[in-house]
Amino acid sequence: MHLFAPHDTVHAGADLQSDDPAHLEEEKVAGAIKTDFILSAEIMAIALAAMDQGSIWMVAATLAVVAIGITAMVYGSVAVIVKADDVGLHMATHGRLSLTKAIGRGIVKGMPGFLKLLMVVGTAAMLWVGGSIVIHGLDSLEFSWLEHHIYDWATQVSHLVSQQAEATVKWFAKAAMDGVVGLAIGLVIIPVVKFVSTMRKQL
To answer: What is the per-residue DSSP string for 14-55?
Structure first.
C-alpha cells in the first residue's frame, strides 16, 4: 500500500536516522517477529486443514509438534539473518585468510540487497498463502465458486504451454491468482484498520 500510495513516514525516518545500532537492531527484530508471527499462523492453519480430523488430543499434539518445528525453523532463520552482517563484519576484520575477509566483506555488502529481496518475496508469499487459506476456507463453507474458477483459469493457462511445463505453469498461475485475492483482501482491511486505529486514539 505504501508503494502505490506513499504516506507520512516521519516516524520511520526517525528510526532509520538513529545512530544507536542497538535501537536499529531492535526495530529490525521487532519487524521480523511481526512478519513471522503471521507466517507461523498461516503454517498452523495449513497444517490444521491438512490433518485428518481425529480426536482433539491427537490434533492438539500434532499442532504442538508443528508449532515447535515452526519456532525452531522460522525464528532460527530470523536470528541467522539478523546476525549475518555482524558475522560478516567479524570475518572481514578478524579473518586470518584473505578469502575469509573477502567473504565477510561480501556478506556485509550483500545483506541490504538480500533483505530487500527477502521483504518482496516474503510479502508475496504471505499474500499467496493468506489468499489460498481464505479461498480454501470459503470452499469448506460451501462457497466454492471462487476456488473452482481459479482452478479452471489456472488449467486454461497451463494449456498454453508444453505438456512438460503444464503442471509448473498451472501451479504458478493458481499461486498468482491466490495472491491477487490476498492482495484484494489486504487492500480492504487497510482502511478498516486505519479507521479502528483512529477511533481508538479519539477514545
So the answer is: HHHT---HHHHHHHHHHHHHHHHHHHHHHHHHHHHHHS----
The whole-angstrom separation of Cα 182 and Cα 119 is 16
Share of the chain above pLDDT 70, in %: 86
Task: Report CA torsion sign: 189, 190, 195, 197.
Answer: positive
* pLDDT of res. 15: 47
Residues 6+ apart with CB under 8 A from 118: 81
| pLDDT of 18 higher than 60 | no
How many whole angstroms separate alpha carbon 130 and alpha carbon 162? 30
Beta carbons of 56 and 71 less than 8 angstroms apart: no
Task: Measure the CA–CA gap between 38 and 182, rounded to whole angstroms.
Answer: 13
pLDDT at 173 over 50: yes
pLDDT at 16: 46
Helix (H, G, I), strand (E, B) or coil at 144: coil
d(CA 33, CA 117): 17
Dihedral angle computed from the Cα positions of residues 178, 166, 143 and 141, in that order, rounded to the nearest 10 degrees? -80
How many degrees, rounded to 5, is the angle at CA 89 between CA 85 and CA 92? 135
* pTM > 0.85: yes or no: no
